[in-house]
Amino acid sequence: MGALHRRWWHSFEEDHDGIEVYRPDGFDFPPARGRGGIEFRDDGTAVEWTSGRADAPEAYEGTWQPEADGESLEVATTGGRPRSVRVVHVDAHRLEIRTGQRP
């Protein structure tokens, strides 16, 4: 999953069938009021980006680790509860995930 290790921005315009679509940093998005994202680093740290004041991104540090099924990740950041993220597709240009809250 080497393509996973980068900063991704939520391309909510492309979401479909319960799947969230993300595009890499530098993608030419249409104008939007705030856009969240997530960054997966190869050392197991993560950053969740949320829309803050004046729609500027705010960063919340955290961690990620693979789950036993080999297809899902557990993501925990200071910005929210731990959640399970199942990677449906990832390549250099697109990340598709399903998310769920942990109990």
Entry summary:
The chain is an all-beta fold.
Write the layout of secondary structure elements.
Blueprint: E1 7-10, E2 20-24, E3 37-40, E4 45-51, E5 57-66, E6 72-77, E7 83-91, E8 94-101
Antiparallel strand pairs: 1-2, 1-3, 2-8, 3-4, 4-5, 5-6, 6-7, 7-8
Shape verdict: globular
Based on secondary structure, the structural category is: mainly beta
Question: How much β-strand is present in the residues?
Answer: over 45%
By DSSP, the count of extended strands is 8
Which runs of at least 5 residues are low in confidence (pLDDT < 50)? Answer: none
Number of helices: 0
Query: What is the overall pLDDT average?
Result: 85
Order of helices and strands: EEEEEEEE
Oligomer: single chain
**What distance lies between the first and last C-alpha atoms, to the nearest angstrom?**
26 Å
Strand order of the largest sheet: 1-2-8-7-6-5-4-3
Q: How many structural domains can be distinguished in the coordinates?
A: 1
